[in-house]
Every structure is written in structure tokens, then in C-alpha cells.
Amino acid sequence: RALEPGDVAKLLDAAERRPLLEMRRVRTGQNKGRAVGNVRPEVAERAKRRGRERRTSYLLAVWAGLRRSGIKALEWGDVDLDAAIPRIRLRARTTKSKRTDTLTVHPQLADELRALRADYGGVGSIVATVPSMKCMRADLAEAGVDYGDERDGFADLHAMRVTLATMMAAAGISQRTRQTHMRHTDPRLTDNTYTDERLLPVAAEITGLPAIIDEPEAEAIPLVRTGTDDTSQNMHETPGIHRQDAANPGKVGASRHDPSGTPQPIADAVVDNCRHGVASTGKTAGDETRTHDIHVGNVTLYH
Question: Most exposed of 48, 181, 223, 277 (fewest Cβ within 10 Å)?
Fold first, then answer.
């Protein structure tokens, strides 16, 4: 299963502290189980280094998506931390697919690797050992994180890859980018197998969608009428109300009448007048006198 980011942080902290705690834990007597024992400085230093490497192993699993074998085979020569964008170069013989790959290093992982390199040198393998499942279960217990069960899934080392894929999906990273970083050849593997939908922000995204509302009423279309004296009058047409009837100046209505007396919309009346050779003033078409223009938007209808 995928872990919550907060649980991953607890695991990283517990993994770094536990080796020294185990060294100091009293096994017998009245202080049994308490981490109050004295430890020689050189022993304490070895325990601290083991804790740092264990923490780094989990970070490589959760940010680079490396499997146990990949973490164990990773060497300092495979990591370029001084580039503008730090990268990990995976050798073909160290990958499951037996092909070379390049991974972008997350800033948190890059900082941890730089600090580890500065403290312990940058030669050979990055980590001496990778935590076993027994060790990881003890780290989870120290962190207070449930190991899991058959129903909900287990928080094993491979679960770090599921955590990575789920965090990328929850952050809205594109499917193609997630597939590339996970090094999957099939996008369905990234989306279905390695993404834990229980940790996706489904509720937040659904409730954040805008409400469905009626569209605002369309703006009125300006109509401009010009006469033979080149004067103009601006009128606005709104739903259900048409311009003043040209043949009946005192009458305003939703339609005008053709010679037969049948109500017609203005547009239809203009077409009808053209068809019958009658201008809106009653003159026959072809009189060379244009009685008026009707402008609708960028279109002009005229006689």
C-alpha cells in the first residue's frame, strides 16, 4: 500500500535513530528495554552511519523508485549531484528491465546524498546494506506506523514505489511523466497497479469543481437604420422585441405584416420584399433609390 507522506517522514526519522537506540537499549535488569546504556564513541559512530544509510535507502526507494537490488547496486559514480539538475544513471545490469535509464533526483534526496558524501566519502557503494524486511518492520514499529495486512496491503520496501507513484498522481503530475519516472513500459501499470486511489485527493477535487449555472443572457445586437438623408438611428434588439416597423412608424411590435396581412419577423419580411420586388416603403425594386439600410453586426441588408 502507499504510505501517507507524514508516515514516510516518521519512518525516515526512526530508521536514522534506531541503530544507536538498539545499541543503548538495556537487555536485562530493572532498566530492561530502556535506551540508557553506555556505548563507546567508535561504536556509536558506526551505529549513526548505519542509521544514515538506512534512511538513505528509504529515500532512494521513495523518491527514485528503486527496488532493493537497485539500491544495493547503486554506486557514487552513478550519481551526478553537481549538475544543474542532479541525475542518477542506472546501468543496464542493475535494472529489472536490463536497460539503461536516467532518473531525475528530487531535491530532498539530492541534499541527503550530498551530506552523506561529505561525511563518509564518495567512493564505492552508496549504502553498505539495504534494510531487510525484519529491519523495516522494526523501523515501522519505532515510528508508530502500522505494517498493514492482507486486506489493506503491507508497508514493505516495494510499497515505497507505490507511495512514489501515488504522490505524483495526487500532485497532478502528467501520466507520461509518472510512467517515465517509474520506468514502466505500460501506462496501465503506473495508473492501476502502482497508484493507491485511497490517497488521491478525490473528494477535494470533486468538491472544488465549479457549480453549473445558467449562461448569462446574450447581449443585445445593435441595429442601425439609415435613410436617404444619410441620418442614422441606433436601436437595440432584445429577445421578443424588434425594431420599429418601417411601414408603421408609430407601431412597435415583434413582427411586421406582409401585403397579405400575415405577421412576419423583420428578417423574413426583408427577404420577402426582395422576393416580391417591393421595397419597405412600397416602391418597386430597381428604382435605384435605396430607401434604408439595416445593419446587423457587421452585415448590412439594404434596398
Answer: 277
Residues paired with 299 in a beta bridge:
296
Distances (CA, A) of 135 to 7, 29, 54, 118, 172: 17, 25, 10, 26, 33
Residues in the chain: 303
Q: How far is the C-alpha of 132 from the C-alpha of 97, rounded, in Å?
A: 23
Instruction: Catalogue the long-range contacts made by 121-125 (C-beta closer than 8 Å, 24 or more residues apart).
Output: 122/76, 123/76, 124/75, 124/76, 125/72, 125/73, 125/74, 125/75, 125/76
Residue 26: the pLDDT is 87
Pairing mode of beta strands 263-264, 293-296: unpaired
Say whether pLDDT at 156 is over 70: yes
Q: CA-CA distances (angstroms) from residue 91 to 70, 99, 186, 260?
A: 9, 7, 21, 90
Using one digit for the tens of pLDDT, what is the confidence trace for 17-37? 999 999 998 888 888 888 888
